[in-house]
Amino acid sequence: MELKEIKELIKLVADYGVSEVEVEKGDFKIAIKKTGEGIIHTAAPVMQIPVAPVAQPVAPAAPQIVAAPAEPAHTPTNLITIKSPMIGTYYSSPSPDKPVFVNVGDEIKAGKVVCIIEAMKLFNEIESEVSGRIVKILVNNASPVEYDQPLFLVEPA
Known about the structure:
By secondary structure, this protein is α+β, with helices and mostly antiparallel strands. Helix content is 19%, strand content 38%.
């Protein structure tokens, strides 16, 4: 998919009030969603996305939506969830031979890199927006993640 086509999709979402568009061409898939904060677009090779019908955009997110609320039910209500800002592959360290960014029990400050999410061969450092202590890591290394999927539970400082 060409950059021009992606820009046209973003314009479609912005101009016509469409809240979400997903397009799949060959081994490329892109999802564009309009939120209260603006337009978010994510893209990833189909191989990195769990197998689900493309015709129903809600279907791929359903397993995460069902699984995520179960976690906070067993934990105190004051925990903050750090969520994935994009679709991609989660990595807990900068490379296989380097130590992980964070472990359970680590104290973090706002702005600290907590993981990397690879999307379309780009490695995006994900920074914490909160300060506190990591209580639980909700995803496994090298696993695919969806947009807005919970990654960490943090007890605020």
